[in-house]
Each structure stands twice: as structure tokens, then as C-alpha cells.
Amino acid sequence: MTSPEVTEAPPGAPGGEAILEVRDLVKHFPLTQGIVFRRQIGAVQAVDGVSFDLRRGETLGIVGESGCGKSTIAKMLVNLERPTAGRIRFKGEDISRLSGRALRAVRRNIQMVFQDPYTSLNPRMTVGDIVGEPYDVHPEVAPKGSRRGRVQELLDVVGLNPEHINRYPHQFSGGQRQRIGIARGLALRPEIIVADEPVSALDVSVQAQVVNLLERLQNEFHLSYIFIAHDLSVVRHISDRVGVMYLGRIVESGTDEAIYEHATHPYTQALLSAVPVPDPEARETRERILLSGDVPSPANPPSGCRFRTRCWKAQPVCAEKDPALDVPPWFREAKGAVAHPSACHFAAEWEDEPGPGRPEAAVGPGAGR
Amino acid sequence: MTALLDVRDLQVEFRTREGVAKAVNGVSYDVAAGETLAVLGESGSGKSVTAQAVMGILDSPPGFVTGGEVVFQGEDLLKLGREARRKVRGERMAMIFQDALSSLNPVLTVGFQLGEMFRVHRGASRAEAKARSIELMERVRIPAARERVNDYPHQFSGGMRQRIMIAMALALGPELIIADEPTTALDVTVQAQVMDLLAELREETGMGLILITHDLGVVADVADKIAVMYAGRIMETAPVHDLYKAPAHPYTRGLLDSIPRLDQKGQELSAIRGTPPSLLAIPPGCPFNPRCPRAQDVCRTDRPPLYEVTDDAGRPLAGRGSACHFWKDQLHDRP
């Protein structure tokens, strides 16, 4: 499949140079049958042709619902999963085929922060051991004698008391545990941090603290982030650019303004309209697009456009022709944020749509079913 | 409107090896028929424990109700015997849980589990129970209910499973439904479908709904009034519009401020500092005082009662209360 990379830097975006280039990334998990003779009877197409660039110092947000493949991408970026096809280039070098020493050297530069701070920290290790463990793998970063000091510095950087170095994870709250996970991610001074739902498991009052911390660290250490989440308002706050995923593909990408104010893909529009707004005044006036049904199985995705089974705009062409992620031809001349890649044959802004084609748009709660 | 459920000064504690955890410390709220009360709080605020005590499904031991009343249609449920209490549960009030997959029995068909309600409570025959199950599934808009009634829970998607939970709660026509984080485990597009269904059914049946959640967005969408909980206490009560427009408690203000807003892009989010207290060691005075930007000496010593919130002329504002010594300043956003 052809899918040009996420391009068009926002004006004033940090750096222009792509530090990470992902092209046509594919991950299929085989489905097998039989115990002695395992025959492959199909594949779960978790990620199916994803391309994007990450520039130095920027934050790329990836949003999508469960099962869309966003976490699988994260795992491939840090080499916890091997891609079925496609390339991941870090500073021009394809890292998806590396092994041994060369792989280890690259991995130092791409670190991960996990979602659940309760299960991603070993309960039998002290905080000092957890945060310092990366140095066992990469002793060149910190010679043995200096490690304790390094770890304490890191704890200080993420806002924990350096004297708590000998405590165990259970002695910390959820937010503090996530800080420990972040300190571990920073230990090797990586250039890229892949954060997979880093605040989803935290309480509302603590989420904001961790988001602020991530932003401060980015400025301090010139980090580039891949920020994966399902919370659209948090992603908007932290991201320079956003990619929206559905069933293993990026369906729309662009600056935060392009996605949140000028979405042209019907799935993005539905997703944005479904997010509850913390303002009771909006109850009566806001329009909601209620999608029917559930996401199809990634083991047997629909032909053509993968969203067509739930889309109110679907036409016969959507079943036959897979729409490419590209700036739609009719928007190429357009000025402003509307000209951004959108994988839809009928990409259009919600306001510009003709009346009859629209779904039963609901105004107010429960109005439109 | 007379209250359908009136919880008065409820106290619940957990006696654990580490000590006594005071999970609920004098909580009062009420719901009328046809009304939606949202109980908003973070993990450990006691919002779910309160609901469990109301339903009478508290794990005991270690949990004990140590005081207060749960008045349901004029009758204090805490004074009822086991059998009488069991009759109320399911029949007159029902609960929807967060995690539908673990709340349904994986080895029994959905139809059997729905039908059980009619067989046990109503003495219905198997055929009759099955017919009623199909009706219920249609009512919560599960497509092809007749074909799917003999399917097992794992054959349904998350949103459909939550619909089955709702169907089960509705089965006997209860007057009150307590929904504990009913959509937290669901994706946003599915969450919208399920919340809409709940709102619609509430309207249709005229039952009362208690919605327990941590999501300020969901609350703004469906609630009539709100009780904000923290460390086992009610911090603020208010009709939904008032709460979002002018909160009368610094904790509520802090929660509202920590949601990322458009105009804050590129700036720091205003976070509440610190973390919620351990229930084993709730700070004296106001439990929020260590994290509160308005805290004074009095907040560290005197526990604020739920003050009645009034307008400038001293007239009480309907349904509003705040457990803050300085609610007046907060209400008018004065420093």
C-alpha cells in the first residue's frame, strides 16, 4: 500500500530533521490451528502499512481506540516486536533488521514509558535497582562507582526525593510510580521516548502533574516523544502533530489544529464528537456522531477502506479502492490547516457537508438514535 | 420532589491488619425518582464503598457500616434483616459494575444469566424466562437478540457486554440503579452509545440513577446534580450547571483546572500538588488541606462541616453545599 509520510511541518515546529522515519510498517500476528501440525489459517493484521516521521524535539501523538494497533507500533519502535515488513530508520539507519551489539547501541537511544505503573515495576527491586538497571546493560553510560549518584540525580529530576532510593515500588503512589518509570526511561539519556498511555492509569488530579513533568523534561533534555493515548484532550495538549489510527492504519494526520479543528476523515470526526465535554452548557447544543456497531476484527478487516462498515458516507468505491493517506486532491490548493493527509475518498470538513449525506447527528443527549 | 434514596451520615470502615481504614466518613446524599446524581471522585475517595454499603454488598469483614442511615422509600435499609435486604436488591434497586467481563459468569450463556432473574425472583418457567431475556436484550438494543441469547459472554464485544449488564439491572424494573464507572473500560465511541442508552432508559422508566465516575466529561453530559467526594467525605454538592460555572470548593476547582484546555496549549497544566491521602492516616481538619492552595491554620485543625452555600444576600442556593471554611472566597474566585 502506498502511504506517504506525515509531512507538512507546522510553522515554527521544532527542528526540521527527521530523527525517526517509519515506512510501510506492518505487523501481522499469525493465527494457527492444530497442535502437532500447526497450520497458519490467517493473521491478525495489527498494524498494516503505517508511515510517519518524528522530528527532533517534537511530540507526535498517536490516538485511536483499543485494538487499533497503537501499542503494537510502540513495541516495534523499541524493538520488543519485530515488524513483519517495513522499515524503521533511526537517523538514517534501518533498525528493524539489526541484531546483537548494533541493536543494543540503537536501543539505548529509544526508550519506553509504560502505561501501568503498578505492573511495569518489579515489586522485589528497590527504586535504585529499577532506575539503575539500564546501566547493567549499558555500562558505558555510567561507570560502576557513579551509578548511585546518577540514580539519585534522576530521582531529583523527576520530582522524587533522592533519599527514597532504597524504597520499594509499593511504598509509592500511582503518580510517583509513574515518575519512577520515567526516571528509568531517562537513565540512558535517550533521544526518543515512546510513551504508551503514560497517564491513563492515573487519577485526574495527578495526570496533570505527570503531563507537566513530561513537557519539562522534553525541553530540558531535547527529547522527541511518541505519545500514544486514547485521551484526546491530553494528546492535543502535548502534541505538535497527531496521527489518528483505525484498525491498523493511520487514517488522518496533521498538526493538532488540522486534526482537532479541521478534521476531514469521518472517523476522526466521529471520535472527536464522542468525547464528553466537561461543560454542561454544551449538552444541548453540541452535535454528536453516533457510530453504529463495533470495530471489525483485525483478523478479517473489510476490503477497501477499513472504516467503511461504520461510515455514513460509504459508497461502492470505498469497498473496492483503498484510500491512500494523502492530502486529498481537492484540498491541495487550499490554504491553512485543512490541507493535510486524510485517507478518505470523500474527505470533507463536517461543516461543509451536504445535508442528506449526514448521519443522524444527535443534538443533546440521546437525541439522535 | 421527595427523595427516593436518602443516605444520611453514612460511616464505613475497613478493619485491616495495618489498621482501621476509614473509607466513608459521614456521607449524605439523596436522589429523587427520575433524577441522575453523579458521585465524582478519585480512586480511594470512597465513592464505590458508599454505593456498596447502599446496595448491601459490602465485603464484611473487613468492611463494616459503623453509623448512619440508608433510607430507601421511607425505610432504613440498614435496619432490615438479611432476607428482607436481599428482596430489595435486584428487585427495587440494582447495580451496574465497571468490568462487564468479570461480572458475568463465563461458563453460562447470557440468556441463562438474564433468565435467572426471572426464575429466582419471579418463579418463571425456563421457556418464559428465555422469552423475557430476549425482550430485555432487544430493549438494550443488542442486534439479533433471538440468535444471540444462547451465546456466552466472551462472544460479545465490550460494549455489548455492558449492555447485557444494563439489561440485567433493568430486569425486575427497579426504582433505582447504581452505575459504578459503567463506561470507564470502554472506548469513547462505544462509551457514547452506552451513556445514551442509560439516559434514555432512565427517562423511559422514571427510575433514579446514581452514576459513580471520575470523568468530569461524562458527568457534564448526563448528571442533574453532583456530589464530589474526597477521602471518604463529601466536599461539595451542587446542581450540574452551578458546579462547573462556579465551584465552591478548592478541590473541585483544582479538578476542573487540571483538564487540558485549548487556550492552555504550550503552557503548564495547573495541577493539584501532592497525592490523595492514605485512608489509614487522613489528615486532621480538612482532609484536603495539605494539597489546598487556600489552606489556613484553621483548616489543619477544624474539620469543616458541609456548609450551606448562599448568594450575596444570604439566600441559600438550591442544592448547594461546600465543606470548605472559605467557600465564599472560592465561590467568587477571590484569593
Give an overview in words.
The complex is a heterodimer of chains A (369) and B (335). Chain A is of the alpha/beta class and 369 residues long. Chain A has one domain: P-loop containing nucleotide triphosphate hydrolases (Rossmann fold, 3-Layer(aba) Sandwich). Chain A has eleven helices and twelve strands. Chain A has helices spanning 70-77, 100-107, 127-132, 134-137, 147-157, 174-186, 204-221, 232-238, 256-261, 266-274, 316-320, and strands at residues 18-33, 39-55, 59-63, 85-90, 93-94, 110-113, 192-196, 224-229, 241-246, 249-255, 287-288, 362-363. In chain A, the strands form three sheets. Chain A has a six-stranded mixed sheet with strand order 6-7-8-3-9-10, with helices on both faces. Chain A has a four-stranded antiparallel sheet with strand order 2-1-4-5. A two-stranded antiparallel ribbon of chain A has the order 11-12. The longest helix of chain A has 18 residues, at 204-221. Chain A is globular, with a radius of gyration of 22 Å. The two termini of chain A are 36 Å apart. In chain B, the strands form two sheets. In chain B, strands 6-7-8-3-9-10-12-11 form an eight-stranded mixed sheet, sandwiched between helices. A four-stranded antiparallel sheet of chain B has the order 2-1-4-5, with helices on one face. By secondary structure, chain B is of the alpha/beta class. In chain B, helix 4 packs across helix 5. In chain B, strand 9 and strand 10 (233-239) form a beta hairpin. Chain B starts with a strand and ends with a helix. Chain B is globular. Chain B has two domains: 3-223, P-loop containing nucleotide triphosphate hydrolases (Rossmann fold, 3-Layer(aba) Sandwich), CATH 3.40.50.300; 229-261 and 270-331, no CATH class. The mean pLDDT of chain B is 89. The interface between A and B is large, with 44 and 48 residues.
